[in-house]
Amino acid sequence: MSTIEDSKGNCGNWMRDYTQLHKSVRSGAKGPRYLMVQAKNTSGLADMFACISSAFLCALLSDRALIIDESDESSRLSVAYSAPNIDWIHQPQKLESLSRKTVHGIGTTGPPAEGPDIDVFHWGNLSSFGSEELVIFDDCNAGLIMPLFDNPFYKVRLYELGLTPETAYGCIFSFLFRLRSTAKDTVKKEIEAMEDSRYIKIGIHIRTSDPTMANQELRWPSHDEAERELANYRPYFSCALEIEEKISRASKKEILWLVLSDSMLLRKSAVVLHGKKILTKIEDGRPPRHVRSSQGGGGADAMSLSAGEHWLFSLADYHIFGFGGFGKSAALSSNKWGYYEVHWHKDPSCKAVSVRELADVPPGI
């Protein structure tokens, strides 16, 4: 939900005050105090969200107005998201003359992110940013929310604001971003199914690789080919079956599996093997692509489709995902429970994980 009034009652009491502060800084009624995010050109959508949510928390705690640099035209978030509460779109002409401090390396060695510039998040005071009018988070593609919740300067204050490690990401996400209708329309049919109360939905997100997105196999596989393809990712589907069996003991509702992946072949293989149980997005003329042009993607269409599928995955009742941040980000943005992280090369077991456990996996939280 993207309104100042939080009807769920689980996001705290900071929204209205911060909205007013942000407006005052942007209008010039208050002196310039900005925190700007510059996401690196190699960052994907989830990496950007991890960084931006952490930057916002820093802005909230240090009374700065958050803005997002959108100078990379290939991956502008504003293509797919509006700003429902604060105007976070960067206006460079207003910032050229401001004194500034740049914080480097957030996420380049993490998680957990490390380095002299970011020790402040773990145990320092954000007043160390000083009186500079503009603080810039440069090369930013990872999250630092969890360290701030353990930081002795801010642990108590964050709880007083009504934020917790479990709710912070989802609350910040809904405060900053509202999916535009053009992005929602990319998955309109699938959203209708996910919002149908007759079903219980298990979301499965499988990240393969950036090269897969750049070189999609669009053919429909045979049954044998589909079996071989999904054999590489069996723990995800075994986990879904395990969850389904437990649900079936308590509910007679039909169960759907939402299967999303950067691999079109994997999506089609799931349909071939599991039939009508599978809900997925298959459009050969519009396969998944990286939002960054440097990774073989880019453009408004890639951003809109990625944002639409991010929203779609958030609607699941249970979330299964592995390495990579996309599935994790979408799940956490929902502020629901029921996260299952599968590391099929290490621990293929199906077990619910906590938000703190998720924070230790790239791109962090």
Q: SSE order in H/E notation? A: HEHEEEHEHHHEHHEHHHEHEHEHEH
Number of helices: 15
Tell me the total number of β-strands. 11
CATH C-level class of the largest domain: Alpha Beta
Number of domains: 2
Based on CA atoms alone, the radius of gyration comes out at 21 Å
How would you explain this protein's 3D organization?
- The chain is α/β, with parallel strands linked by helices and 365 residues long.
- The chain folds into two domains: 15-179, Rossmann fold; 183-358, 3-Layer(aba) Sandwich (Rossmann fold), CATH 3.40.50.11350.
- It is 37% helix and 12% strand.
- It has helices at residues 15-27, 45-61, 119-123, 145-150, 155-161, 168-176, 181-184, 188-194, 210-214, 223-231, 234-248, 264-274, 300-314, 326-333, 355-358; strands at residues 34-37, 65-68, 81-82, 100-103, 134-137, 178-179, 199-206, 254-261, 278-279, 318-321, 339-341.
- The chain has a five-stranded parallel β-sheet with strand order 9-8-7-10-11, sandwiched between helices.
- Strand 8 (254-261), helix 12 and strand 9 (278-279) form a beta-alpha-beta unit.
- The protein is globular, with a radius of gyration of 21 Å.
- It starts with 14 loop residues before the first helix and ends in a 7-residue tail after the last helix.
